[in-house]
Model the fold of this input.
Amino acid sequence: MKTLERQILTNAIEKNGTDEQMRIAQEECAELIQAISKYHRAQLAESRHRGHATERATKHLIEEIADVSIMVDQLKLMIKGNHNDVREQKITRIGERIQKGDK
Ligand SMILES: [Mg+2]
Done:
């Protein structure tokens, strides 16, 4: 995270409090779930020649991915821990599963 981004997000946490920012994180996760669902439906509709909904759904999905990414950054600032180590371990595990042929 860039220094300016960290400062802005820290200010948001200080202004609104961790409870509020965590509630917003929950809401943004729900919005992402809905955007993924709409993206799949748009793809299905387009494959059946029912319009060009995918472009709009893709744009919306990108917005929601950004929202969740920002809230994840704030969660990392609020919940102190070795986030990078855990992330690295999980990515390594995914790599091992792929090599083994698991999903
Ligand atoms: Mg959102």
